């Protein structure tokens, strides 16, 4: 199953909408989570829209909506491919750094659900470590630590990625260019065990300062032996170990 998450930064212009349609035709996701659409609910179909968030899907019985707010949409996924029910949360971290802890409290409230097969996708508006940012002022170590702690406390691990390193970029010139990995997927150990061949990819983009992220729960290509597949995984916490630099060298 393909799940696309994207901070599109507005869909008010017909040209932007047409570009999005072309992208969706090429990818053909089963579930679509959009952020910062800046559209009214009347202009969306099969949707829960609040604060610019949108969740769409293909298949009437696929999604059971549980809750939503300006910063999240929570749903049960009735997956007929493996006959399991698991949880998907589309997440948008508060862009106001002073209110970022409110976002982690939202994850805390969501974590109290008993369904342990859980994946969270979206724009968290925060990074794990300083190496996930290039250019601009240094990020607050305290805020990055709070982000890591929040995910650890609720048994959510970073899913890694393939493709370009950063998911957000601003500034066309080298002196003013800033890049960060703000968009990601995190999941519980049980969810990862359910989909051991998953792949999360950072896709190219043309009309937003965020790139779309595509989660494919079953990424194994047909007619290709499994042992020929090489997915790169990187655990951000490795960089916190004092021996990491020497080990790489």
Automatic annotation (TrEMBL):
Gene3D superfamilies linked: Endonuclease/exonuclease/phosphatase (3.60.10.10)
Q: Does the keyword Transferase apply?
A: yes
What are the entry keywords? Nucleotidyltransferase, RNA-directed DNA polymerase, Transferase
> Entry's Pfam families?
Exo_endo_phos
MF terms from GO for this chain are:
RNA-directed DNA polymerase activity
Where does the record place the Endonuclease/exonuclease/phosphatase domain? 4-184
User: InterPro entries under this entry?
Assistant: Endo/exonu/phosph_ase_sf, Endo/exonuclease/phosphatase
Q: What is this protein called?
A: Reverse transcriptase
């Amino acid at each position: 199953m393909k799940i696309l998450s994207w901070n599109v930064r507005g869909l008010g212009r017909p040209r932007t909408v047409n570009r999005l349609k072309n992208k969706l035709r090429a990818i053909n996701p089963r579930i679509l989570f959009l952020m910062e659409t800046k559209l009214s609910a009347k202009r969306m179909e099969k949707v829960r829209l609040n604060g610019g968030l949108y969740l769409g899907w293909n298949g009437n019985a696929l999604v059971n909506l549980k809750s939503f707010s300006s910063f999240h949409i929570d749903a049960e996924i009735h997956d007929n491919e493996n006959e399991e029910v698991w949880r998907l949360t589309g997440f948008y971290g508060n862009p106001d750094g002073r209110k970022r802890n409110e976002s982690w409290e939202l994850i805390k409230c969501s974590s109290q659900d008993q369904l342990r097969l859980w994946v969270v996708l979206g724009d968290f508006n925060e990074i794990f470590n300083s190496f996930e940012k290039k250019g601009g002022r240094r990020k607050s170590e305290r805020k990055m630590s709070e982000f890591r702690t929040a995910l650890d406390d609720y048994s959510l691990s970073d899913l890694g990625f393939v493709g370009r390193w950063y998911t957000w970029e601003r500034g066309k010139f080298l002196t003013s260019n800033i890049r960060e990995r703000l968009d990601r997927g995190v999941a519980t150990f049980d969810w990862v065990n359910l989909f051991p061949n998953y792949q999360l990819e950072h896709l190219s983009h043309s009309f937003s300062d965020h790139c779309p992220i595509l989660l494919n729960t079953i990424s194994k290509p047909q007619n290709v032996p499994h042992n020929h597949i090489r997915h790169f995984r990187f655990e951000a916490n490795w960089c916190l170990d004092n021996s990491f630099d020497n080990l790489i060298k």
